[in-house]
Amino acid sequence: xxxxxxxxxxxxxxxxxxxxxxxxxxxxxxxxxxxxxxxxxxxxxxxxxxxxxxxxxxxxxxxxxxxxxxxxxxxxxxxxxxxxxxxxxxxxxxxxxxxxxxxxxxxxxxxxxxxxxxxxxxxxxxxxxxxxxxxxxxxxxxxxxxxxxxxxxxxxxxxxxxxxxxxxxxxxxxxxxxxxxxxxxxxxxxxxxxxxxxxxxxxxxxxxxxxxxxxxxxxxxxxxxxxxxxxxxxxxxxxxxxxxxxxxxxxxxxxxxxxxxxxxxxxxxxxxxxxxxxxxxxxxxxxxxxxxxxxxxxxxxxxxxxxxxxxxxxxxxxxxxxxxxxxxxxxxxxxxxxxxxxxxxxxxxxxxxxxxxxxxxxxxxxxxxxxxxxxxxxxxxxxxxxxxxxxxxxxxxxxxxxxxxxxxxxxxxxxx
Length: 416
Fold this sequence. Notes:
- 45% of the residues lie in helices and 17% in strands.
- By secondary structure, it is of the alpha/beta class.
- The protein has 3 domains: 1-95, no CATH class; 101-154; 157-369, no CATH class.
- The protein is elongated, with a radius of gyration of 30 Å.
């Protein structure tokens, strides 16, 4: 390189560097160098391919083709060597490969998992890497996680979970050109160490309980299942886990009750209802329920009948002390998970198919689970109460890790 050319090259590098431009993209300073390195590497691969055995059958070089590749360093054109018999399979830039590096694919999948649309992702990649990527290519890249989604859906579960919560989210999905409303059921579990885990997600055409029959995968026992009052769900749970204790969500029950109470009566009705669900014991709660019937049964018989019909499963939490009551009397735990998922999915009008929905919720779930690094608050006390209640159904190992953390000053290998 002549001195004048070197000076011009250095000026170009400095100008582009100071302006924050990608030095490797098309028409950028380092693009010819990167192009030269890639093409030399491909030529070396071709030379290795055309060994004596290939040449003995008449194979040899057959000119070069052109390819535009996209990478985290921008978009640029390269020349690719070809052989007469088309048996050359390059490793550096494979045939039909348009994305050069997996790290760019990972960035795209990461942005998609944060809820960004294909249009926004395309604009972001263009701005950051000076690379144009079509919506079709973006879809192909995000489709790479489909095997991960399926593997995750079919992964083995632990044999026992202390508590599980079930609740549904509702989305619009395109089916044969029409928009359908579908329920996405998420199951959140707490293992014996007190850590949260999403056990599965299932799409249903409507709110039905049949999906529950798919929840097995090595799971043999559930101590407490907390659900809304979905028709048939309790029977479905007990058909698979007959020893499970089912606690219906008090909050769902209250919401459903208020739908049938006149607005002018709701404040007073709720004051009386609190004597039921906030009672100190089941006996006190049942006295409150009798009082509720005497006062409101004539005016709101449907509401009172609903509490009476479901009372056995609404009142399971009275068997426990306050810390466990707060955990199981409502499905707030899984609803909190849903609020985080909706931050990601709220920008989507309708998903193109079921897998498009599952892909995004799966990625959101993996991001959310990264924050679940500690057991539930005071789990060491809660799990001992559960052990007193359920005995050997909780296979506790009595060491420091049994309760989610090592006590201060005690190594994790020390036995309690």
